[in-house]
């Protein structure tokens, strides 16, 4: 993500879109393994419980945007990049940060008292 933000600081939206696709790919590989095709990864990622059906559809669109940048020289607008980043950051939060924070929260809560 640091490299994506560096590309954005230099106005390289095309590179940022490619980087977002790569970051999402690596995140899914880390969590569910390499299924080779992006569609298979998104399906497995959703089945593993990381995404709702709606989030999986959104992730497919983000990956398609990355494909368009890589294969069709599509250069997203600043608004397009904002959308790509918002959903990517949200997906990263859901995948990594929320899980850890919920575990910490569970540790901090008192147990329910048992009925007598």
Explain what you see.
- By secondary structure, the protein is mostly helical.
- It has one domain (2-106).
- The protein is 77% helix and 0% strand.
- The protein is built from 5 helices and no strands.
- The longest helix is centred in the last third of the chain and has 31 residues, at 78-108.
- The radius of gyration is 17 Å and the shape is elongated.
- The N and C termini lie far apart (53 Å).
- The mean pLDDT is 93.
What brief labels describe this structure?
116 residues; mainly alpha; 77% helix
Overall residue-averaged pLDDT value: 93
Label the structural class. mainly alpha
How many domains? The number is 1
Q: What does the largest sheet look like?
A: none
Number of strands: 0
Report the helical percentage: over 70%
* Net shape: elongated
Radius of gyration: 17 Å
How much β-strand is present in the residues?
under 5%
Stretches where pLDDT falls below 50 for ≥5 residues?
none
Helix-strand sequence: HHHHH
SS field, number of helical segments: 5
Distance between the termini: 53 Å
């Amino acid at each position: 993500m640091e490299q994506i933000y560096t590309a954005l600081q230099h106005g390289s939206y095309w590179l940022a879109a490619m980087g977002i696709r790569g970051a999402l790919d690596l995140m899914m590989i880390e969590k569910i393994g390499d299924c080779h095709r992006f569609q298979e990864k998104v399906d497995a990622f959703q089945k593993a419980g990381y995404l709702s059906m709606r989030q999986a559809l959104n992730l497919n669109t983000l990956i398609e945007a990355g494909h368009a940048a890589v294969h069709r020289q599509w250069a997203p607008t600043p608004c397009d990049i904002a959308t790509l980043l918002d959903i990517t950051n949200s997906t990263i939060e859901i995948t990594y940060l929320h899980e850890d924070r919920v575990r910490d929260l569970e540790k901090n809560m008192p147990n329910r008292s048992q009925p007598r």
